[in-house]
Amino acid sequence: xxxxxxxxxxxxxxALALVFLTGGIASAQIQAAGGGYYVAGYxxxxxxxxxxxxxxxQIYDKMKAEKAERQAAPASAAxxxxxxxxxxPTVARNRGVFRPDPKVETGKLLADNLGDTPEEKxxxxxxxxxxxxxxxxxAAARGFKNNIAGGLTFFTVAAATVYHDAETPGDxxxxxxxxxxxxxxxxxxxxxxxxxxxKQGFNNMxxxxxxxLLATYAEAKQNNNAEMLTSARKLAGMLIEMVLKxxxxxxxxxxxxIVMK
Length: 261
What we know:
Elements: H1 2-18, H2 27-35, H3 39-47, H4 50-56, H5 59-72, E1 76-78, E2 84-86, H6 106-114, H7 118-142, H8 148-164, H9 171-186, H10 190-193, H11 196-222, H12 226-244, E3 251-254, E4 257-260
Antiparallel strand pairs: 1-2, 3-4
Helix pairs in contact: 1-11, 2-7, 2-11, 3-6, 3-12, 5-9, 6-7, 7-11, 8-9, 8-11, 8-12, 11-12
């Protein structure tokens, strides 16, 4: 039963990626959009969100500390007369939450920096639009909507899945990771100072990066293309290092759980 659930989740993530492969898009175009992993282009996109990029240098360590604190904290403490004392809940500041602005054009930013030809730029915009639509629907259902913690969670799941060629984590693990991420962002004051449009753009960038990763990975798996699968893994590793500031080997999916080392 558990194996079948993992297969269902894997099918869902592939289904999202394969949306952009309809209509006879050539493998070479997918390779150009993601498998070639234009390092300079991804760096330019990421660097355009300077304030977020600086804040990101703290995120992985904050996440590990947040996870350790959650695991170490007892559900209750006992007094000398053995009466349970419930610890007060953590108050969420939600520093990653933003108000969306329809004028933010992340698809164009990605296309202009990652695509060389009109066909590549159009494909990247298509990948972004399809991924964004799928993400927003899922984010609304999970309570991740308009929150950088949601984009980072989606990115982490996509990148770790592709890098390790692993089964996707369980729903509970994804929700727990979001809570840890949200708590970690609350510990980084720089996110409070960010303008809404910058938070939105950064979140959209994460969704776009994830979509390109998934599209490349899905194409490679569908066609049993070992070279493209290797390229997807390299891209995932590069993006994990860029966004989460950690070695991709430190981020794993084990027994349906997202593991940080």
